[in-house]
Design a protein that fits this description.
This protein is an alpha/beta fold. It is built from eleven helices and 15 strands. A hairpin with a 2-residue loop joins strand 1 and strand 2.
């Protein structure tokens, strides 16, 4: 005998005063209700209902049994509902690793709105530069810039963050605004060293002109390079040089006029791709799914903040990315 179903049918019959009404309420046949209520009476060793032409009436034993069972069944149903709601509302902790620059300038500013929608979810943010870092294994989800081999992670590509060439208005006033990418060779350009240790000192541009597509490749030089973009940004904001930067990560500085973009009629090539990486066993976890969907939507919104173009793919790496050279510009002499 299914004791839980028997109790459900018994209490339904007690409340409705009818086995047939209980059957309709429970969505089963009259025979099924009668069979389980009879089996319940046999198990407890007493008659629970007095049956006559007017229907059912609880016996004294039946009334006592119903009073005892009803709260237990209600408690069980409440537990079932709480579990269903928990599965529909993410909770617990999600450990998120990511490129520090992107987390700080793009993700953290949007997290209060995300938290308002998912107040029971705790985020643990960790700075991760490379998919191969040992600390990456402690994360449930990673959001990284760069061309990484996914390995045993599941990879989900996000919107490309177009890049622009920027400096402060004071810097451009002092050193002149470049009208062509080749003129950047005369400027103090602040280059980023990527997680592979390669200095990104080759800035490539594309323009569609009357004669077709034109590619310009500029080897840039400057007195400060760094593997931490905030160092470059800080110097650029102090009128110290030119940097290439994803528009989305400098939107406040660009909107306020502290940084001014140039060469907007040229597309900056090779913007590093942005992707989510997560552990396969967590792909169906609700807290991971809602945060991954948030990242996908938010990155699309960020990519649309500018008219600058950016096209890249995780599976199509620029030629300079290959090889063990410490400088991207070395590719020009070894190709």
């Amino acid at each position: 005998m299914d004791k839980l179903k028997a109790l459900q049918y018994f209490l339904a019959a007690a409340q409705t005063g009818s086995l047939s009404a209980a059957a309709r309420e429970q969505g089963v046949s009259l025979q099924a209700v009668a069979k389980l209520v009879g089996a319940l009476e046999k198990q407890v060793g007493t008659t629970l209902f007095q049956r006559d032409s007017r229907g059912l009436k609880l016996t004294a034993d039946g009334a006592q049994y119903a009073d005892a069972c009803a709260p237990l069944l209600a408690q069980l149903q409440a537990a079932d509902e709480a579990l269903r709601q928990a599965r529909q509302r993410p909770q617990g902790t999600l450990v998120v690793g990511g490129t520090p620059f992107f987390l700080q300038h793009c993700i953290v500013p949007a997290l209060q709105a995300f938290h308002a929608g998912y107040p029971d979810l705790t985020l643990d943010l960790r700075a991760i530069l490379h998919l191969g870092e040992a600390a990456a294994r402690d994360c449930d989800l990673l959001v990284l810039h760069g061309w990484f081999e996914a390995g045993d992670w599941v990879r989900r590509e996000l919107a490309v963050m177009p890049q622009v060439t920027v400096a402060t208005p004071a810097y451009w006033k002092r050193h002149g605004i470049p009208r062509h990418p080749s003129e950047l060779s005369q400027h103090n350009c602040l280059s980023y060293r990527n997680p592979y240790g390669k200095l990104l000192d080759l800035w490539r541009y594309r323009q569609n002109g009357p004669q077709g597509e034109v590619i310009e490749q500029v080897v840039v030089r400057g007195w400060l390079n760094s593997n931490y973009r905030d160092n470059l940004l800080e110097l650029a904001l102090r009128d110290g040089g030119v940097m290439r930067i994803a528009y989305a990560t400098a939107q406040a500085e660009l909107a306020s006029g502290r940084l001014a973009p140039v060469l907007l009629d040229w597309e900056m090539l090779d913007p590093p791709p942005l992707a989510i990486y997560f552990k396969p066993e967590l792909r169906r976890t609700l807290r991971l799914r809602v945060f991954a969907d948030f990242l996908a939507t938010h990155s699309t919104e960020l990519a649309q903040l500018t008219d600058a173009k950016g096209h890249t793919s995780l599976d199509v790496r620029p030629a300079w990315h290959r090889g063990s050279s410490r400088r991207a510009s070395s590719w020009l002499t070894h190709r």
